[in-house]
Each structure stands twice: as structure tokens, then as C-alpha cells.
């Protein structure tokens, strides 16, 4: 018979082997080369019976792998709803972890609607920003994931729709930059500030960033929601100017038809016609 350690046994749902290895003296909280314990493996693979057994025999429910992920965060990322229920029932930690995330951030980052519902019922802060270097709230994560249903749930649960991350990105700015038209529409319908600026990106607006990244449907939608078509960034450049810099004829046409001023000059004295005539 091929040798099987406790990590493999937990991952392959072999409860008999797990019991035998523990009875033979295997440390229940020992981690593999990645810091994964038997509990991490069982949670990742959705093996409820083994998870129950491990927890009832001393497994650390909040053990950290080498990237500081706990079992509950793994369950959220994987979308194992019953596993989340089980870990919560065994009183796992739901607060900010050493990696700067809560389980709610993990669930939102993978678009796990049903898990988000469970976590919100447990009282997790819908506006808590992660501490891992981005300052993303759950709404930022759900927007980045392009999960319309998660965005809708979080907004209706009281998420601050205009909250900025540490780089000054609001959810609307992220959605506009990625071309997520339905999320842009949803955020605007729920009173997102259409001209919210991103200070770290030269005071650019969602309209400017959508123009830069060539998202015509988003540009049209933003303008139809009264985005300031003449707003300028720190360089004195409007969305039309940005489209000209990119030689984007379709975007230029859209913006001109929407009334954008073609007689503009940036802070360097360059005119729109100068940009269009450059090689």
C-alpha cells in the first residue's frame, strides 16, 4: 500500500487513516511544507466529517499556513458553505487575521454570495478595510471580482459605496477601469459619486479612466448619468484628451457626440489637434 501521511488522508477524506495516524502519535497541528495542517487540507477539500473529527480531537481551528490563511478563510475562498457553517459553530475567529483579511474579504474576493450572507448575519463589518496593502473593503473586492450579485448584496447591506482604498480607488473607479458595465450601472443607481476623483492617479475620474482603458459602454453610461465630460486631471487633460493621446477614434467620436469640447489645451500648452497630428 502506498504511504499516505495525515495531510493526504485528510485531503482524500480517509477518516480511518486519519484516526490511525493520530493514534500512532502524529501531531494533529503539525503543518506541511506550506504550513497546511490536516485541518487546512480537510477544509479545502470540503471533507466535513474529517473536519469535525479533527476539531473534536484538539485541532487548532485558527491555525495559520505560511501565508497566514486560516481554515475559515480557505472555506470562504473555496465556497464551501456547509464548512463555513461548521467552523462558525466551533467558534472560529472571524476578525482581522494576521494576513490582514477577514473571512468576509475572502468571500467577497471570490464572489461567494451565500457565504457573505452567512457572515453578515454574524455581524461582520461590511465596511472593514483589509490591512494587506490595498485597503480594500468587501465591496472593493466584489467589484474587482466582477460579481454583480455580491456587489448588490453588499450595497443593500449598508456598504459605503464611495469608500476609497489606500490608493484612492472607489468601487466605481475600479469598475470603470475594468469595463464592468453592469456593476457601474448598479453603483450609479445606488448613488455612487459619478465624478469621484482618484488622487493617486492624478485626480482622474471614472470617466477619464474608462476612456483611457477603452470602455465605450462605460463611458456612455457615465455621461448619461451626468458625469462631467469636461473634468480635468492634474495635467489639464479631459476624457477626450486622453482618448486623443491613445489615438482611439471610436472613443473620440463618442465623446464629441456627447458634447466634449475639442478646443482644449493641457497644462503643457498642447492642444487636442496637436495630439491628433502627432505620429
TrEMBL record:
Coiled-coil features, chain-numbered ranges: none
Gene3D superfamilies, per the entry: Ankyrin repeat-containing domain
Keyword Repeat: yes
Pfam families, per the entry: Ank (PF00023), Ank_2 (PF12796), Ank_4 (PF13637)
Renumbered ranges of ANK repeats: 34-66, 67-99, 99-131, 134-166, 167-199, 202-234, 235-267
Keyword Repeat: yes
Transmembrane segments: none
Keywords annotated in UniProt: ANK repeat, Repeat
PANTHER family named in the record: ANKYRIN REPEAT CONTAINING, ANKYRIN REPEAT DOMAIN-CONTAINING PROTEIN 16
Name assigned to this protein: Ankyrin repeat protein
